[in-house]
Inverse folding.
């Protein structure tokens, strides 16, 4: 309730100052306190052949077992030895992993962690949105993450830029050795059916522009089409001066509430009829890269 009052007050102040601000204007005027830094231990940096670089924030609070596996795979150097992009499906996903599915996993990697689909209760700091959702009872945000909930459990929704874990048929939940990024319309029917372990912060253009696979489900037909994953590291393993730095807009701030309102009710000059609502996948908390970490 306090956030709603703060957002309303901010909106009134902005409206009194002139034309209704666009979402971009709200971001540009947001104070430093409206943003949180991505922790280096959660910042996964990937580089695929051709110089395609990707930065991902891992979500250990939502999928602790799968994220622990990913950390072990990265520490072992498993991805550069075995993984390549094997699937690019139009309006759906880019997926990478071991094309042979035979490479042994490092010691300590759990093959099917049980805790990546949902977590009990509601996350700390959850703020619900007032908009309806076709898939879940409530949607909202917590700590800069999109969240869906039914009141007894909560989970990450399948939206563009979200990082998921490939798996086979249940009860398999995947190990984290096979990963994908959503590049198309949010396949929300996958919510709570596949573990989501993070979110792409940068590099989407280098993945979404890849040639589509011509086999079933967008699989690449030949080895020559596959794109090797050449480097996978956590930013925390780099010297501090070499770590890239990213921020995510905090979802418990007046700036974020004003941004959400502006996204759902576009009042800037281009729009004739504000929608009066927004899908959770259109309200992914903004991210930005900042100066190199010191």
């Amino acid at each position: 309730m306090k956030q709603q009052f703060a957002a309303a007050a901010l909106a009134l102040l902005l409206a009194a100052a002139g034309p209704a601000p666009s979402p971009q204007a709200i971001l540009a005027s947001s104070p430093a306190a409206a943003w949180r830094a991505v922790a280096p231990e959660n910042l996964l940096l990937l580089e695929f052949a051709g110089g395609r670089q990707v930065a991902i924030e891992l979500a250990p609070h939502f999928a602790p077992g799968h994220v622990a596996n990913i950390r072990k795979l990265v520490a072992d150097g498993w991805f550069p030895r075995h993984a390549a992009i094997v699937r690019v499906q139009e309006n759906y996903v880019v997926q990478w992993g071991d094309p042979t599915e035979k490479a042994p996993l490092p010691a300590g990697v759990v093959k099917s962690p049980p805790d990546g689909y949902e977590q009990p209760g509601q996350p700390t700091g959850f703020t619900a949105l007032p908009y309806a959702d076709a898939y879940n009872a409530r949607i909202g945000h917590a700590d800069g993450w999109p969240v869906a909930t039914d009141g007894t459990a909560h989970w990450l929704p399948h939206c563009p830029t979200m990082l998921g874990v490939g798996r086979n048929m249940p009860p398999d939940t995947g190990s984290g050795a096979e990963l994908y990024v959503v590049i198309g319309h949010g396949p929300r029917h996958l919510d709570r059916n596949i573990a989501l372990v993070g979110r792409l912060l940068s590099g989407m253009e280098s993945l979404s522009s890849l040639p589509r696979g011509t086999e079933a489900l967008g699989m690449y037909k030949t080895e020559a089409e596959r794109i090797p994953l050449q480097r996978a590291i956590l930013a925390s393993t780099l010297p501090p001066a070499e770590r890239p730095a990213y921020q995510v807009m905090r979802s418990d701030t007046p700036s974020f509430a004003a941004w959400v309102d502006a996204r759902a009710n576009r009042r800037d000059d281009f729009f004739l009829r504000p929608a009066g609502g927004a899908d959770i996948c259109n309200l992914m908390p903004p991210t930005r890269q900042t100066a190199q970490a010191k």
